[in-house]
Design a protein that fits this description.
By secondary structure, this protein is mainly alpha-helical. The chain is built from 5 helices and 2 strands; from the N terminus they run ββααααα.
Length: 155
């Protein structure tokens, strides 16, 4: 059993592969006939509702152009990079990974990202610039003063 990430949380998904290597005991109910065997009525209703929601989510994803879904994931990488840059202190290595992944997506799929490609390119440029600015700010002497400010203070 694997899981599918949804905005509402992770949902277990039966991918149809039987992972057991030994046959089920002879006295055990046949799970292939009814995978909900042994559940209470309330648990069964919840499982059936969850399965219906999963089927609806899969249908919605199937009817959405892949470029839109990929673009959505790309913006998630943008947000991840921004979160790491905004930490105190900034986590540059984690931000770099997210930004590099975004770059690989946007630049690697150039010409295939649909109507939002220009927006994704702009987002990539902005987050890269933010990374440079944050990196430089961390290299400045303590106290947030630039070299010019320190020199003026010394005179």
């Amino acid at each position: 059993m694997s899981t599918l990430w949804t905005p509402g949380g992770e949902v277990p998904v039966d991918d149809g592969r039987d992972r057991s290597t030994s046959p089920p005991p002879q006295d055990a109910p046949n799970q292939a006939e009814d995978p909900l065997t042994g559940l209470s009525d309330e648990e069964r209703a919840q499982a059936e509702e969850l399965a219906e929601q999963l089927a609806e989510a899969r249908e919605q994803i199937a009817n959405t152009p892949a470029s839109v879904v990929v673009g959505n994931h790309a913006m998630g990488l943008y947000e991840l990079g921004a979160i790491h840059l905004s930490q105190q202190p900034p986590n540059l290595e984690e931000a770099r990974l997210a930004i590099d992944a975004l770059g690989e997506l946007v630049e690697g799929l150039e010409g295939r990202l649909g109507e939002h490609e220009a927006t994704l390119k702009d987002a990539l440029h902005q987050i890269r610039m933010a990374f440079v600015q944050v990196s430089r700010a961390m290299e400045e002497p303590t106290g947030g003063q630039s070299e010019e400010t320190e020199e003026a203070t010394e005179e």
